Prior knowledge:
It is a single chain. The chain is α+β, with helices and mostly antiparallel strands. Among the domains are: 3-63 and 105-325, no CATH class; 464-581, no CATH class. It is built from 17 helices and 20 strands. The chain has helices at residues 3-27, 33-56, 104-136, 141-154, 192-207, 210-223, 228-250, 255-271, 286-294, 305-324, 371-378, 396-399, 432-443, 480-486, 519-527, 561-565, 573-581, and strands spanning 60-65, 86-88, 97-99, 138-139, 160-165, 172-174, 179-184, 325-330, 340-346, 355-360, 363-370, 390-392, 401-408, 447-462, 473-475, 504-508, 511-517, 535-538, 546-551, 583-599. The strands form five sheets. Strands 1, 8, 12, 14, 18 and 20 form a six-stranded mixed β-sheet that branches. A hairpin with a 4-residue loop joins strand 6 and strand 7 (179-184). Helix 8 (255-271) packs antiparallel against helix 9 (286-294). The longest helix has 33 residues, at 104-136.
Amino acid sequence: MTSGLFVLSLILKATATLAATLSLLKLCHRTPASMRHLIVVAGFAILAILPIATIAMPPVVVEVLAAPSFVNRSDPSSVDNAFEAEIVTSGTSSSEKQSFPFSISAVLITAWIVGTALFLAPVAWGLWQVRQLRRCGWPWLEGQALAVRIAVDSGVRRHVLVLRHEHVTGPMTCGLFRTTILLPTDARTWNTDALRRALVHEVEHARRYDWIVHCLTRIVCAVYWFHPFVWVAWRQLRLEAERACDDAVVRRDDAGEYASLLIQVAQTQLRGAREPMLAMANRGDLAVRVAAVLNPDQARGRVSIPTVVVASIGVTVVSAAVGAVTFAQSQRNPQPLPPVLSVVKRNVSGDVQSRLGVPHRNRFVATNVTIAEVIAAAYGNLLPLRADQVVGGPGWMRSERYDVEAKLDTSVGDDEPFAGVEPIDDRGVVDQFAMVRAVLAERFKLGTRETTKNGPVYILMRTGSADDVGAQIKVSKTDCEAISAAGPYTVLVGPDGQPMRPCGVRRRPGQIVGTGATTQQLAQQLTRVATVEREVLNRTGLTGRFDFTLTWTPPPTPGSREAAAVIDGGPSIFAAVQEQLGLKLQAQRGPVRVLVVDRLERPTPN
């Protein structure tokens, strides 16, 4: 899929995951806080796995219907490239389009990455804060001895270090590998019962590995920073972690006394310094916590190991299932056409010559071609798709050869062969390739879907500044609008008294000539050069129309006309683009358009 569809897919999946997590949390409001905390952790785990699962899992395709479009294939300048963001400038016709130097999806992804970096900065700062607190804290032997006894009773086998620090206003637990409990300096004035309750709460954090979970989920929040649901889930995660540890205290001690301790600590925090960036407890949740502590009907308890195992399996299964869903643009005819008359027959002549062309403006004829070649032409947006861009389908689609002829069924009693038919464009030209798609759907029962894959591409870009272009490319003075308005069969005379050539790009062995053409059209033609054979994406940033001539030495094919055209020592296509046009083809990986053939049957009888 394209980067844009990948981002859209990830947002939709994240939304569904978060909505399901928060809804399940609402339904389980009577369950222990430890269970609700596990539900939120499972939701965050799915969010963390989703990008990897979306890339790695075999896709289960969900088609997204594209809006109907009207494509004038007889005018190359009207072809819409699937990978370029285009705009129509004021004062120009709709067929005169200019390409942004950057695609919209690239801008969005860049904004996403920048946002993620900005939201990760507080995490890094918080880790540094905690490190400084641990380095400057004072060991407290009395608290240390009590914490060790509580840790043994709670089943915590790791070493727990107790420190006091003047900048800590309330108890907190931290440490990824070595658990440290930080207490305020006035903790030595607390009575033994209050200290024990505070340490039970903090040791429970250590037993549950809440600090590690806290940091990892905060990183997930940074990745999904733009989604409001993720911050709702983040606050709920912190609250449920605190309530689960509160339950550990209430299970062994007096709830009223513990509620008083919570209020006392909160009052101290309000008077004290700002809490560390990665502190787990939220001052705003005090009322909810106190109410839960004093509620005798509130269920309390730990989550069992089998429950954690089942939750882990569920996370894996759900992540794989949701990640496998892939969105692809469904393929539809640009516009409904009248019925098409077609003749399809097998060609068993054994002739090596084939023809795939349009001898009449409202008729399509192909001789001795494979159906894969016909599909590539019909869905190629003016230029046929390459062989590697048509995937799937039965083997005979590439081995058996056919003759195919198609024209509109306009038998309405008029003498003119196409009288009474409303044309696709304003010049009376019918979209021949739409006719071919209709034939493929009717006679071959063709079913396709369009998607993209990440593959090798070339980026067409400038080698220097905007004004630094090659000698063989000039700003065009051709009036393309006047030529287009006059129609395809009217010859206009230019200011120099010479006939004006139609605007567009012409390609022949070893040469590409553009008249009033865009760099987008140049990129499309370069895609079809035999020695390129990759998708060429236009990133030149050059707008407007140009006249250019590009000449290079094509590789000779024995016995072909190209062999006679080879000039010894001539430039390659890559050198010619740079030397003659001041541009370059840079190899990268990017989105490659792919047409997947899901269904194809042998043709029905004529």
